[in-house]
Amino acid sequence: MPLENGEYFMEYRKLEEALERQNKLIRTITENATTALFTMNTEGYCTYMNPAGERMFGYTAEEIASTPLHYLIHSRRPDGSLYPIEECPIDRALPEHTTVRAHEDVFFRKDGSPVPVSCSISPVYENGHPVITVLEVHDLTEQKKHEEAILRNTKNLEILNSIGKSISAEMDLRNILQKVTDASTNLTGAQFGAFFFNTVKTKGESYLLYTLSGATADTFKGFPMPGKTPLFHPTFNGERVIRSDDITMDPHFGHNYHNGMPGGHLPVVSYLAVPVIAKSGAVIGGLFFGHSRPGAFSTEDEKMVSSIASQAAIAIDNAKLFDKVKTANRQNKRLLKIAKQLDDKKNEFMSIASHELKTPVTSIKGYLQIIEKIAKAEEKPILNGFITKAARQVDKLTSLVNDLLDATRIQAGKITYNFTTFNFGDVLEDSISSLRVVNNTHTIEINGDQNIFITADRIRLEQVISNLLSNAVKYSPEADKIILNVNQEEEILKVEIIDFGIGISEHTIPNIFDRYFREIDKNYQFNGLGLGLYISAEIIKGHNGMIWVESEPGMGATFSFTIPVNQTT
């Protein structure tokens, strides 16, 4: 049923009101948007710009509509060169029917300053034909600042890490300080940097110019080194970092010169000073930077140099410690050389003395044998006891002389071995028989198979067994028994000699086989040079074997050794 005129008018009013509400909503959205919005006609002129666009680019609606939009905000490339309109994606979107999303570019404000942006360009169509272009622009200035800050911080961290590795691997103090000065000068963009190293002279503290970057030492020639003046005191005293955008305006500046900067001095305006403090809290020195331009150093520069200063302090401490170690090593080498010379002279003396003693001892033993025969022939038994005692003392002296000779041969690397094949049981029998001649106070219990044929130096092995049995008797004065265990496992011979004597203290065991070592026991007095176990250990080593002891004080001791049953020369 067709509408009456009144009804038609009412419907038309409703449509108009709805359209007005829609347009009002659109205006509200566009005018309050933080994104700049533009519309362009087919000639590239701006037909609409929202308030955000005005704020972003500084043009009024009349100004923006006076010239094709490309020439106002996009006529140049970031490098300043001209941007032809026929290459502009904004201008080409409408005639070429193209839509562009999230296109990053650089636009320019009315005052000529660049604006990093992200923009989207979309043609609007009527009856299939593009009539206007909608341009949406996001200001990326803050985002780019954040990105640049992240990149800068990442780069700085990489540089700081690289510096840390570089100086931590360096042990030369001057090289460390030069690397630190060069790196921190470059990082801060300072025109020059310097490290003043703290030295103490007779009249008190003095800061010595140690390394420079961006200037030569001649620059400072003729000027006194900085001291603990009001300007330098916080740095030299390790109190805090000093950063000034214009040091010439500092009330403490020029305290020593009264008229500010001395003639010929570097033109310092921006000033940065960072103390370098050791782990101990002592001020090692200070890093100082200067620039002729005011405000050259930032908070970031201050943080970076402080970080480098901390790394430098550790590296400097390490370098000083390394110098001390090198000095100690040189001293130790010198002392070791002297000790070796003295040891060589001592060994030479012992060798000569032993040889010289051997001849008269042999003669004395011969004379005693002659006297013994005369005493028997003339039937004077009273002399036999004295002769026997004298012969035992000569045997002891002979044993000591032989030990000294063996010790000097071992030290000189001249001890030799004569490997033959024999029955190890014969060695045990001879060793026990020799012991019973001089001492018959202990019984010796032998366990295990004695009938073992081995290839070794028989005389040297008998020397080891005799020494271990003799010690077992000597160090168990209140016992009367020694156990000797013999065991062969595959190609290894193992011997254990167990006594029930005074034992060995735990702290002594690691040194028991050292040359001339003897444990002191206040309850007992034992004779000897402390060579027997040393010689025995060297003989066992010469047989490619091992020797060790297990003991506790008051519980006796077990000396054990192992050797291969077949020695090879």
TrEMBL record:
EC number of the protein: 2.7.13.3
PANTHER family documented for this protein: HISTIDINE KINASE, TWO-COMPONENT HISTIDINE KINASE
NCBIfam families attached to this UniProt entry: sensory_box
Record lineage: Bacteria, Pseudomonadati, Bacteroidota, Sphingobacteriia, Sphingobacteriales
Protein name: histidine kinase
Annotated Gene3D superfamilies: 1.10.287.130, 3.30.450.40, Histidine kinase-like ATPase, C-terminal domain, PAS domain
Positions of the Histidine kinase domain: 352-567
Hydrolase keyword on record: no
Taxonomic superkingdom: Bacteria
